[in-house]
Amino acid sequence: MSQYEAVIGLEVHVQIRTQSKMFTRVGTGYGHPENTLTDPVVLALPGTLPVLNKAALDAIIKTGLMLGCEIASVCKWDRKNYFYPDSPKNYQITQFDQPICIGGGVEIELPGSARNVMGEHKIIPLTRIHLEEDVGKLNHGSHESLVDYNRAGTPLMEIVTDPALESADEAYAFLTAIRAAIVQGGISDCDMEKGQLRCDANISIRPVGTTELGTKVELKNLNSISYVRDGIAHEIKRQLSLTASGGEIVQETRDYDGTTGASQSLRSKEMAHDYRYFPDPDLMPVEVDETWKNRIEATCPEMPFDRQRRFFETYELPYTITSVLVWDRPLAEYFEETVKLAGVARAQLVGNWIVNDLLREVGAAKIDLADSKIRPAHIAELVELIETGTLLNNAAREVFADMFQSGEMPGAIVKSKGLAAEPTDTAELEQWCRDSIATNDKAKAEFQGGKGSAINAFKGPVMKASRGKANPKLVDETLRRLLAES
Amino acid sequence: MANHNDIDIDRVAQLARVELTAEEKAKFSRQLGDVLHHITQLEQVDVTGVEPSAHAYPMVNVWADDVAQKGLSAEDALRNAPAKRDNMIAVPKVVE
Amino acid sequence: MADELYFQTIASLAERLGAKGLSSVELTKAVIARTQAVESQICAFNSFDVDDALAQAATSDARREAGEVLGPLDGIPVGLKDVIAVENQPLTASSKMLADFVSPYDATVTQNLKKAGAVLWGRLNLDEFAMGSSTENSATKKTTNPWDRTCVPGGSSGGSAAAVSAGQAIASLGSDTGGSIRQPAAFCGVVGMKPTYGLVSRYGLIAFASSLDQIGPFAHTVEDAAIMLQSIAGHDVKDSTSYRADIPDYRAELSQRKGPWKLGIPKEYFGEGLDPEVNAAVEKAIAYYREQGCEIKEVSMPHTKYCLDAYYVIATAEASSNLSRYDGIRYGHRSKDAKDVEDLYFKSRGEGFGEEVKRRIMLGTYVLSSGYYDAYYLRAQKVRTLIRQDFLKAYEEVDALITPTSPTPAFKLGAKADPLALYLCDIYTIGANLAGLPGISLPCGFASSGLPIGLQLIGQPFEEANLLSIAHSYEQAHEWRNAHPQI
Lengths: 486, 96, 487
Fold this sequence. Notes:
- The structure holds 3 protein chains of 3 kinds.
- Chain A is α+β, with helices and mostly antiparallel strands.
- Chain A is built from 15 helices and 18 strands.
- In chain A, strands 1, 3, 7, 8, 9, 12, 13, 14, 15 and 16 form a 10-stranded mixed β-sheet that branches. In chain A, strands 6-5-17 form a 3-stranded antiparallel β-sheet, with no helix packed on it. A two-stranded antiparallel sheet of chain A has the order 4-18.
- Chain C contains 16 helices and 11 strands.
- In chain C, helix 2 (24-42) packs across helix 5 (158-166), helix 8 packs across helix 16 (464-476) and helix 10 packs across helix 13.
């Protein structure tokens, strides 16, 4: 039997964070007392009519621009007719054949060969993004179901990928990337637990080398990004094994249970849905002109991987650092602010302190970065003290912890705690350096042969001899001078 | 061309979620068949190059600013509810 | 009888109220008494609330006492078709589906009338969900024609027309999707007007066909209709199809515009099926305009014969979707026999909807369904464009079109059992809905049977001032408005 490949398409629904609902001006929200975010329009009382939410339009245009979509010059609204208790009008207002965003693509990063190695990048093409309204929530009891309409009518973006993902890992990477972009764009908080981001997957397999799509299975109830990956992986396995044993894949919808890792077929409907789409006569088309687009474009943030590339180039940051900064826009901005104060030459040092130490402290204290007492100026000064040899690494850790608690500037802490490094006995230092060079001919040859990083091999013994107190800058200078001389 | 006098009344009633008696099905089948037959006149019209009128007049970009206004209290929202519990609409258990 | 308070015009009553020769409470009491006296014969009302009406009247009188400057509608009893939402009042659409529904909100037109100080009086009967041309499809009762109680009042706004005709309301509001104001106005011998689509807000009007529905007034005179229109016309943010138009002073314009006008006679409206007496009455009206120096031109509207078909595809398609919300879940009739949710939908809707409503939902669902959308709905919308172009082309040469409102006067209750036969009642009125144009029906005579005959004028978009003036000119030169049914 020939090899098979998986073909995956994702449908992602994202709730746009607005003050009011998509087609009426009652408030939006999560966790409110049942049925307190409704009005006659939400409940589809007799005689009610929809009115578009301008902010939702702005938000989806922004998303489309961020993801490289074409923004349609004209788009319209359609009714998707079907009956369900969570859908008050028994039709959903959506965009059928003229969506507001067309095409586009999401850059993803696949896992690398190791944690500190950047993985392959690829672009997942999008088919479209359109606006629609969310439905209410059904709460199932033993004999009845109870409906809460608070969520009904919330603005929803539906993002549809081409059937172009090839693995569960790609799906995971896609959702990570798109969530970052949308959160960083201020469009939504994408909290999956609150239903702000939902993902369904369409999965099929086909023999490698063929282009025709196999029978697809829709997978629903994928409640976290991990479950999306696991559910897809499980389904691919299921289809492969079914095919291998001669079985036939049935077009169906399956429900994935993340906790058990199993899926089951949802009760199949006797009849395929006939949604009887037609243009909604209550709503007017939307025309987006260049002025509108330009205004939104000006508010678009830098995309995560563009930032990553810029950080590589401008600051020569290693992947271990950029891989953290990519996903956290406030952290990345904090970093750049600090570098502005500390100077580009110290970027890596700054990066280390922020990504390792600051993030750790903020995480342990369970606070937001914005609430940290350590601000860019603190870190810039800390790094300055270290570089000039005033503060040695062990002491620096102590200063950092103190800064985090007190918010005092590091210079002041060093003074008050008497943590300044002892002035260096340069003769002693020079001797340690000579000794270190003498014991390592190999490194000496390499360094003199042009391998700059070979100098690091000499530093360990010097620091050991000095019991960690040697001024790193002086050590470096001294070693270079000695190596140049000999 | 669409098969005019052959309206599949069962399928349509299913889509529309309206229960019809056998008598109604027979009657509607016949009556709607007549109406559809009349409507076939529309096929005579030359509509080449004609845009469909979704609305009486072209209007675009009708919207409102994103300002939340007061809605209904849960009590008012459920005032006409045939069945309710815990401030929610009650329906027979839905099997997904 | 003609001197009775309940047959007076808004204009004359406003004067008397203003001169303090009459109070709103007195007036309202007279209307209430008249309603109660004839209602068993006319059956125009689904419900009314006497205490509430008198309380409103008293508040109006208090405003007048306090010296406030009041508009012409203040203190005037006005009826509303039972598809227009009034807070805390029933909103039934004359359907079992909404028999117990009480609206928690006001329609925009309701708010407008309240602002104008009108006394909102009663919920007026209609064909269920506004689907019909005789009010015989009402699930509550059958309204009769005040001129001959064995005849229909027309539909779907039969109750609204009959109430004004019988003196049970000084004026009323109805809705018009295919002629549902104009045709009953013609049948009942009163003035009925459908504004340009988008002039009056639809927020709070139970939707039948969204792209065709408009709310409009019934009244004894064109001037009264102008007063009513003034209070309800204007842009509404809650209705995205509402037009931003400058609203002139319609009543003031009546005395400014004297013509002569250019009037068009669409030849396709005067052919087969037109009752000879109706034809004769309309011809006489045309002669009047000619005598006044109006240029009368024959015009052709070649797509007229497709109006009915395009209408029944578009209207039922939109209706089938608009009525999906009536499912017994959040409100409305819920079947007691349902074993699960699916069953609940089927049974509630099967039990809650009447025959004509079910028939139209079936047709509408069908024309939108997979495989049929292009052949029916899409095609009908294209034909609609052509129909509108016919009108606009005619309007390059004329100010308005003059036609009969209906091919015949009112027919007997039960006379038209066949749905298609009833649909044919609408052939002269439907075009204006499809094209989104304003239309008015006013009395222009009586048949030998004693039943009224209506004259229709169809105007240019948003040119209500002109349309009303043209109608006003004819009306003032004749006495039809002073004739009242003997009940």
